[in-house]
């Protein structure tokens, strides 16, 4: 199957330029820093090492293009944290008048974008290689315990700020709740938290992940048997293939649209087809198999809990037959939630469950578009009007 996809990609690469007369979107196959530089925003690349040795890459837009770098006006730092199988690119894959990172930079914020262990930008370690099984022995629980605290500390140390604003999307919210459970002292380092498509409980999720949850034990055994520990990290050839196949001027773009709809729900009206090649050459950005199976376990159990290794290893790791549940009452920082009725991954019932358990939800907005899906929070054509203007208003109020 892999060889067939590669062969099809080579054919398409050889034919597409002649048939289209032009290249695909100029940002297809570009990295996050390259995308930012394309729009002439200042960009910095930083690296931070976690307590357990993972080297994470951070991307920064220190100021907007409307404000000179020499300005003495203080810019509060804000950290944007991406979703499952995503990267920092999710916040810059649109024009500057619509993408969240640029809007925040032009509104006076010092914008930082994190990348968790195992994605495109964070596949280095002080002693391990991604070719080793040991490198991939983590789920989002470790991202909450190690990655997010390391990122927050680095941003605060670099900016000399007392605290920062935080915007998490999907898994970016999951690891935030997990961090506050394990390291509640970080409540003092976050001024306010914004959750887009917030995910803790996923028992009412729909789509392929929900259907796969009943087979999570089999998936874990098969992955272990075949020695597969990394999940969905596309290489150069596949990215090139997608940049042409998903171009809005090519008939195969319909397949790309349908692939997205199958994963996250359908909202054709909000699909930004012009940027489709950019989306799909940056996403999926890869993660560990355990990160995905951790979510599958939670869909099956209906609980928000740590990784279930099985009775024997649970006793070894947790001194209990069962994985401990996360305590959301420890998240005392002010929280704003943005959810939608057509979100397959952050389903309304699960978001309400989360809202009721968080002790300091100060704002909750349901997106007005009834068809708004999970990925629309970062990919929708009108996310600026439907979501971001309210995010900016909330942040300004606080």
Task: Describe the protein.
- This protein is α/β, with parallel strands linked by helices.
- It has two domains: 1-30 and 235-283, no CATH class; 32-200 and 317-397, Alpha/Beta hydrolase fold, catalytic domain (Rossmann fold, 3-Layer(aba) Sandwich).
- Helix content is 40%, strand content 14%.
- It has helices at residues 2-20, 32-38, 100-106, 140-159, 171-182, 208-212, 216-226, 236-245, 253-264, 276-282, 289-301, 311-318, 348-357, 376-379, 383-397, and strands at 44-49, 54-61, 77-81, 110-113, 124-125, 164-169, 190-196, 230-233, 285-288, 335-339, 361-366.
List keywords for this structure.
398 residues; 11 strands; Rossmann fold; alpha/beta; 14% strand; disordered N terminus; 2 domains; two-stranded antiparallel ribbon; nine-stranded mixed sheet; 40% helix; 15 helices
Secondary structure elements and pairings:
Elements: H1 2-20, H2 32-38, E1 44-49, E2 54-61, E3 77-81, H3 100-106, E4 110-113, E5 124-125, H4 140-159, E6 164-169, H5 171-182, E7 190-196, H6 208-212, H7 216-226, E8 230-233, H8 236-245, H9 253-264, H10 276-282, E9 285-288, H11 289-301, H12 311-318, E10 335-339, H13 348-357, E11 361-366, H14 376-379, H15 383-397
Parallel strand pairs: 3-4, 3-6, 6-7, 7-10, 10-11
Antiparallel strand pairs: 1-2, 2-4, 2-5, 8-9
Helix pairs in contact: 1-8, 4-5, 7-11, 8-10
